[in-house]
Amino acid sequence: MKTEHIKILIFAIAISFVMVVAFYIYFGEAKVENEKGDADVIETVCKETAVTDVEEISEEEGAKEAVDCRAVYDSFSKLQIEKIYTETVDDGNGNQTMQFQTYYLSDVDIAAMTDATSDYTQAVGTEAFDSEKISDISFEEAFGFSYKTCKDLYEVMETARLTMGFDAEYEDARLDDNKKNLLGEESYVYEKDCSILEQLLANVDYNTLIQTKCAYSVAEMKGTKYPTSFTAVVQYVKGNVTYTKTAYLGFAGENADELLEEENTCKSNDVCGACGETGECSQGCGGSCCK
């Protein structure tokens, strides 16, 4: 297994843990705030057509910001997709255990119509990572559809989120001020239920349902915002035990031009093939230290 791949996985796990902890803090008192209050509501709307300017609407309705998802995803040459399910059990005595129930990771090259999809479920844990427990799995089995039926990476992203059950409309969401203030992450909470919440509660027997929540996060590239991850959380109590289930779907794109620029950038330990200098070429030598 490539070292870079392991590093990416470890980084992804760290992000997932941070997201879970953030939701724990947000729901610490089991309060779900649905009131919009007097503050402006910023809604992100994912459109297929190119959008460059923010559309201004009446002050009473707040500001609506259009997100051109297709333009961003079409700029990617490859797409990495994560699918994670976790369950955390709190016995009420200060003891918590978290388990990864599902952890799939796939790298998709839509132009070549190839993928590298792996099952990390047995390899990840709260204490250690064991690369020997990584197993192969087909993309279709992992994500429930074939990317080969999609014409571009935007369609791969959309099909993945809808198939997993993050099927509410982008515009039916409000800015999560708590998460933005806590982590600096721009996240939007769906105000309509996604079917993923029903899936997480299927065949579950509980005494009290504490909370259910579904949200998506956005990033910005060259002034354009686009969705990067979707998260669902359900929390309930049975007896004296509290259960928290999470579902996470994440996307990370690779831009061919940026990768080429990075490959041609001199690193501190690179040796120039022309002048022999380390790190950067001698002034005017005309060589490339990346050879």
Tell me what the structure shows.
The protein has 291 residues and is of the alpha+beta class. It folds into 2 domains: 3-254, no CATH class; 260-291, no CATH class. Helix content is 24%, strand content 33%. Strands 6-5-4-3-11-10-9-8-7 form a 9-stranded antiparallel sheet, with helices on both faces. It is globular and about 70 Å long. The two termini are 25 Å apart.
Q: What's the shape? A: globular
- How does the major sheet shape up? 9 strands, antiparallel
- State Rg: 22 Å
| Main sheet strand line-up | 6-5-4-3-11-10-9-8-7
Number of strands: 11
Write down the oligomeric state: single chain
How is this fold's topology laid out?
Blueprint: H1 3-26, E1 43-47, E2 64-68, H2 69-74, E3 78-90, E4 96-109, E5 114-119, E6 135-136, H3 139-143, H4 153-164, E7 173-175, H5 177-183, E8 187-190, H6 195-201, E9 208-221, E10 224-238, E11 241-254, H7 256-263
Parallel strand pairs: 1-2
Antiparallel strand pairs: 3-4, 3-11, 4-5, 5-6, 7-8, 8-9, 9-10, 10-11
